[in-house]
Design brief:
heterodimer, A: 152 residues, alpha+beta, Lipocalin, eight-stranded antiparallel β-barrel, B: 153 residues, eight-stranded antiparallel beta barrel, 10 strands, 22% helix, globular
């Protein structure tokens, strides 16, 4: 009888943990999947659209599309790849969902990567842009920080 | 006569286009050959992490591979990396490189690291940023530095 109770308890713990983890994953996915608008920090430039189409619930791999607002690549769609991750909340520490994504803008031969976090329904990310041709050896990489808000 | 001349000009243009295209493909193939394999991070403060670039898609430039951390709780584990390789034709009086970016999700910690830089003189020189899930302050989730990766013999 005791043995059965122990087994039953173990099964219940596993089930509760599993469903909690699945629910968390589903929650992260539902919060991230969809269209987002890029906002340049401190500038009034029109931002690009990021469309997150999937987040793998096992690996956290993110996929989507990037639509630049203007220029030679304006209106075209480019593949986005990246990651979503998280860790359990720790006491007295600030906790966020971590995220990265990058896009190869083949029109220019440049790549932009974003590394940041999801918090308060916004994605805040620092970015690096690398261009294949530059005036000097030292200015291939540009950097800054953007905020993405979800399209309604 | 005009028709014939036009035909010859068109054929020449087509030939030039084909040559450029094959040269570009050859360059792409060269970039792949140069990138595929194991690379070691030379940043002494971080320790010798290894990335193994296993494939670069010749059509899209998508890069895949594995990342092996040098130490800590995730040491000896392998993590998937995803990213891109790209380029553009060289432009006169401009410094020209092959651009590359890759990212790894270190699930042991819930952190993600990204490198964005270029391949030049058999080295990958890249700015790196790391975002961690838990930090002491709201403003220090993201850290940045730069790394140099050299190809393993």
């Amino acid at each position: 009888m005791k043995r059965r109770l122990v087994l039953l308890t173990c099964c219940l713990i596993v089930l509760v943990n599993f469903s909690h983890s699945q629910a968390q994953d589903t929650s992260i996915q539902s919060r991230l999947i969809g269209k987002w608008t890029q906002h340049y920090t401190g500038m009034s430039l029109q931002g690009a659209t990021l469309n997150i189409t999937s987040v793998d619930s096992v690996t956290g791999q993110l996929k989507g599309k990037w639509i630049p607002p203007s220029g030679a690549a304006g209106g075209k769609e480019f593949d986005v790849v990246g990651w979503v991750s998280s860790a359990p909340l720790r006491e007295k520490l600030d906790n966020v969902i971590t995220i990265s994504f990058s896009v190869s803008l083949t029109t220019y031969g440049s790549i932009t990567s974003y590394t940041g976090f999801f918090k308060d329904n916004k994605i805040t990310a620092s970015w690096f842009n690398i261009k294949p041709n530059s005036t000097y050896e030292w200015d291939h990489v540009s950097t800054g920080q953007d905020v993405f808000t979800r399209n309604l | 006569m005009i028709k014939r001349t036009l035909f010859v000009v068109a054929a020449c243009l087509l030939l030039i286009g084909l040559c450029d295209s094959s040269r570009s493909r050859a360059q792409d193939a060269l970039a792949q050959t140069k990138l595929i394999g194991k690379w070691t991070n030379q940043n002494e403060t971080k320790g010798p992490a290894i990335i193994n670039i296993t494939s670069v898609d010749p059509a899209t430039g998508q890069l895949k591979g594995k990342y092996s951390p040098p130490s800590g709780a995730a040491a000896a584990k392998e993590f998937d990396i995803v990213g891109w390789v790209s380029s553009a034709p060289p432009v006169a009086n401009r410094d020209h490189v092959i651009v590359v970016s890759f990212s790894v999700s270190l699930t042991t910690y819930g952190s993600i690291a990204t490198w964005t830089g270029f391949l030049k003189e058999n080295k990958i020189i890249a700015s790196s940023s790391n975002v961690r899930s838990n930090s002491g302050y709201e403003w220090d989730h993201i850290t940045a530095t730069y790394d140099v990766w050299t190809k393993n013999p």
